[in-house]
Every structure is written in structure tokens, then in C-alpha cells.
Amino acid sequence: MEPAWRQQGRGRGRSQEAQVERSRPLQRERERPGTATGRGVRTKTGSTPEPPHGLAVQSKFEEIRKSNQAAAQRLVESHFSSSSDDEDDNSIDDGDHKEGKRGKILASAFTTYTDQTGGDATGLQRTGQYVSDLFQSGALTCLICIASVKRTQAVWSCSSCFSLFHLPCIQKWAKDSVFLVSSVTDEDFGQKQHPWPCPKCRAEYPPSATPNRYTCYCGKLQDPPADPWLVPHSCGSICQKELKPACGHTCLLLCHPEDEQVYTGSVEMFLKLCVSECAPCPRVSVQKCVCGREKAERPCASPRWTCQQVCLQCVSSSSLKLWRRCGSSDSSLPCTEEVQPCGDTCDRRLACLKHTCSMRCHRGSCETCRQEVEKECRCGRYRKQMPCHKEYLCDSKCPKTRNCQRHQCRRKCCPGNCPPCDQSCGRTLGCRNHKCPSVCHQGSCYPCPESVEVRCTCGSTVLVVPCGRERTTKPPRCKEACRCPPSCHHPTREAHRCHPGTCPPCKQPCLLPLPSCSHTCPQPCHDVVLVKSQQVHLAGPWEQPSEPAFVKKALPCPPCQVPLPTACFGEHEVSPVPCHRQGRFSCKRPCGRPLTCGNHSCSRECHLVNSNPCEVCEEGCSKPRPSGCPHSCPRPCHPGACPPCSQMIRQRCHCKISLLYVECTKLTAADEQTKEALSSCNNQCPKELSCGHRCKQVCHPGVCEETCQQKVKLRCPCKRIKKEVLCSLSPQFAVECDDICREQQKKVSQV
Fold first, then answer.
1. How far is the C-alpha of 184 from the C-alpha of 402, rounded, in Å?
2. Which of 312, 368, 631, 670 has the most beta carbons within 10 angstroms of its beta carbon?
3. Which residues contact 577 (CB under 8 A, 6 or more apart)?
4. Sign of dihedral through CA atoms 147, 148, 152, 154?
5. Would you give the distance in Å from CA 223 to the centre of its chain?
6. pLDDT tens for residues 28-87?
7. What is the separation of C-alpha 22 from the centre of its chain, rounded to a whole number of angstroms?
8. Where does residue 450 rank: exposed (0-12), middle (13-18), buried (19+ CB within 10 A)?
């Protein structure tokens, strides 16, 4: 039998033929005239016009819309799947959320009932507990495939034991059961209608009762949709089934599974009781009397009544006509007297049905037939003289194989109708815990009828599951507090619910006294901590590690972290320091203490002066120099004023011809007039005046004076008379020709 999760496409009670039928309209639509019927061949028909462009677009749109709706439906069904493998009960907060949701679903299923009782649901404690257990992971299991029943899968419920099975599983079970019975018992195979049994309670169903539809629990709705806020496989309507024992009322709960619970291998039905004390029924119905010979209309509240006829069982005075025990004569005697033997031969047929009793009429049964006859053995091979009442069985053993097809008959003197195999099957069942207790048989063994209790860690909560399912079923969620003793030094654990596996790590503060101070450890408990073990290097993949990857160890308390106010070495700040590092510290700032030079401060990191004195200043003197001095102080950094600068400054004179060397101190300490004198080479200025003569002044700064003292000669126009004057005054003087000059000019002109 395939498990339910492998039988895809068969949910909701539909077969694969139905899916094929749904696909045929699309195929017929593709095979319309005008479409391709072969490779590159088209058939043309004049009677069927091509559809307009708008209709083709509309049909394509409808096809896409239907495809999208089918995809959305598949997504919803997969989202609302209630497989036990998808549940996770490790988180308490998540468990509380699921518990609240489950409570809302149960409350909605009991709404109609509680409306009639004013909110009192005490009569539904067992029913509510059973329906709640169905939500537990692994609680609802198909006994055929031993797989969980999801809320989106088609199911069938037995009307006798109310167990749920996958619809494909029970259909295959019924078919296989009928086939096996027919192959063993029918001479004309398949002609008789054999019943098939329920896999759990063995209740028999005729072949016509083989389920072919998926309905809800109350049977009103076919293919109920998966609603996350309803009980799985429920339609959400009121049940309205008659209550048991019958009281004339119907069930007021919403569509729900029948209530059952298993104890020590037997099924005990917890039936739903009526809501309250019923008033006497006011209706009238036809009821039989006590003796059953008459009927009359009577009130339903008083069905017991007696008729007026005489009871035949109470008549003791009438006489009866009785036959003698040998049957030869009769007489009429009161029923209180005993019939006496008549003395004739008994002559009644003996048990062999061939001879008669030869004794006189007697009380009691006749003796066995002792006449000697020739008898044939049961298998027909041998004959022998022996008493009639004895059966003749020869010693030959039947070599045929019994109906189990595993063992030989080996019965003495077998006539050919070998009995069914009476040996125990002994094969291991699907649960892998028990062996088949049935007699040897063909085909698959029945599922294991045993049930196993899956308990929580403390044992307070029990979940009953089919045998074999306990390996994959998660323990039930328990609301009790965990009772495991603490594994650390604390007297009690933190309060948490009962859970499978090991308890979570203790998160209480350690509070153990620390060894080096008076404080206690504030860290979470570290008595049991998972630490990665040191793995030995393996030579290859064929070697297995000798130790687990993680081991539990008790870690020592960490150093004390209580802050204590402490000043740094240089007393720059007061900061909190962990207790385990108690003592002065370096604040990482520069020391800042003044050095012996008096000009700089210690640039080392904050330190103690007593054991580690400040550094010695190794920098050069950085004091400001006198104005105009470009040289630095030749001494290292020192206190007080710097000595006078004795270096020589090389500079050009004012006329830029000679290089002069002047002591820096003289130059920087002199006034402007002295600086001009120190910068002069004391030679005649080489500059040329505008008149063309050389400047007569000594080397000087700035522009030369234009008062030229050079003497120049001035002549008259005839060049006879000449005079000497200063060059600067020459523009103001003019030499004129005299009379002599004029006479000479006349003579020349005359000549």
C-alpha cells in the first residue's frame, strides 16, 4: 500500500478518471476543424467560419483565468496542510498561540450546545478532550499506510469504531480484501459478493458499501473545503445526529468526529449525553405489551403495559398430551407427573443413522452403535472391518499445500478438502513491535491492533497512538510544570512547562562568591555549558571521531566586573574600573607634566612619575628669534633667553656689486640708518644719471639724486667761445656769440 503522501492527484475522493474527463473538453476543443491534423497539413472546411478576433481573445482570457484560479486553490490547500511534521512545539510562546487558536476552534464547534446550556460545557469534557487530541501531532493516523492524516486529504470514517482512513487507502484495502477472500474460497473466482472488513474493528461491509465519495463527518457536504478555523474535515454545520442512548434529541455540536478512546486494547465508546434532564415525552406511539401478543397506542413516557390475555407461561394446572420416550404410545398426563417407560423395544435411530436401538424403552439417550461394518477411510484409499460408531482414518498424510500457500496439509487421511492453516502467522507487523497473531494467511497482514501510549516527560499527559507510530510521534504538550531536578548548584530550576528532551540551560544568576573579592558572580549559571571538544585529526573518512563535537562542562566564574571609581596615573580623570583590575591605570592621554626645560610638557602616555620619570626634552630651542634673525638658537631647549646670534649674514650692498658679511646681532640690533651704513660698500655708486654721468655719491640705497655735479663745457654757436658749468645747471645757461664772432662770420661769408 502506498502512503498517502505518494498518492498525488487522488484527494477529495476523486479518481484519476475524473481528472481525465476534465481534460477531455480541452482536447476536443483543440481537435476542432481548421486545426492541424498532421505534420504541416490543414483541413479547410467552408461550412465552419473562423471565429472573430474578439471571441478568440475572450476564450484565451477565460482559459488563463481558470488556470490562475486552480493555481491559487492549490496554494491555499498546501498552505492549510496540517501535517504533524510541520508543527514545532519547542517554543512555549508559540505553543500558547497554537493552544489559543485550538481553543477558539473548539469553542466555535460547541457554540450551539453552550447556547442551550447557558455557557455550561461540563458535559463535553470527554468529547472536547478527544477532539483536542486530534490536533496533537501524530494523533490522527491512517492505520493502513501508517501516515498522518492532513486536513486537505480525503478521508473515510468507519461507522463502527469511527476510525479515520485515507480514502484511497480504504478503497485499495476493500478491493484487496475481497480479492484475497475470493481467490481462496470461490471455485468460480469473482462470482460471489464477499464483504470486506474494517482494518481496525473488523466490522464487515458489503462490496456496495466501498466508499467512493469524500464527505464531512455528518454526511451533509461532499468534498468539504479546508477551513483553518474549523475542525478538519468538518462542514461547519450542526451535527443533528440522534444522541445515544436514544432520547429523541439530536446532537447540537458542529460537524465533528465521533468520540472514542482506547484502553488496554479494547475500545470504549464515550457517547454524547443529552444536554439536561428531559421532560416526559408528550407524544403517542405504538407499543407492544409485555408478552408481545398485542399492540396499542401508548404515551412514549410509559411504554410498559400488560394486555388482558392469560400468560401461557403461568398456566400450571392444565394437562398435556405427551409421547412416551420410545415414541410407541402416548397418554394424557398432568404436566406435574413423570412419563414411565412402556417396556417395548426402543427402536430409535442411532447416531450413525443406519441402525436402530435394540434396547427396551429407556430413559436418556441411546448407546453408541457397535455393529461391525466394512468402512472406507476418509481419503478413500483403504477399507477395513470395524465398529460402526468409529471413524476409519488411515495413516497416510496429505502432501497438498494449505490455503496459506506456505505449509503442507500433513493431515492424516485427508479427503482433499484441506482445512485452513491453523499455524500462527508469526510475521512481523508493520509496527515492527509485534508479530501477526492471526492464523497463517495469504497476502498482507492486518495492521497491528495494539495501541501505544505516548507520554510526556513527567507522565501526566498521555496520547494514544497506533502501535508503531510512537517512534515518529512527538510527545504530547503538557501543561504541568517540569519536574526534572536541577543539574546546577541552584536548589530549583526556573519555572517552565514539561517538555521532551533535556531542560533548557539555567538562566538564573550564578551568585557564587568570587575568590578574589567580596562580590558574587552576576553571570547566568554556567555549571553545564556546551563546549566544543578538541577533535583529534582523523586519518581519513573511514575513521569515526571518538568524542562528540560538543561536551558539557562547568566553566569557572568570569573575573569580577563590578566597577570601582579609580584615578589614573596622571590624575587626569576618575573612571570606573572592573574589580578584577583594581588599581590605578593609564587613561591613554599624554602625561602633560612640564619638563625641566620649562618650555614643553611630557608627551608620554599617562604614567607613574615615581617608578617611571618623565622624558628628557630632546628638542631644539623653539623660542622666537629677534626680528630679522633667520637663524635658530644653536642650544638645545633651555630655560631663559637665548644668547646673541653670532652668525654672519651674507648680503649684497646697495649697488648690488659687492658681497658684504655682517654679524647677525649687529644687523638685527641696528636702527635704520645704521643698517643702511652696514649695507653700503663705501664705493662710488656705479649708477648712471639721466644726464649720462656717473653718480658721485657713495654706495647708497634708493634712487640716485639728479643734481649732477659734473662740470660740462658750453660753446657759442660758432664754437669760438666756451664756458664750464655744473651739469645740473647747464639747461639754465646759454653762451652767445660776441662781436668778434660776428665779424669772423662776415669775413667767412665774404670769402
1. 10
2. 670
3. 563, 564, 565, 566, 583, 585
4. positive
5. 29
6. 333 333 333 333 333 333 333 444 555 666 777 777 778 777 776 766 555 444 433 444
7. 37
8. middle
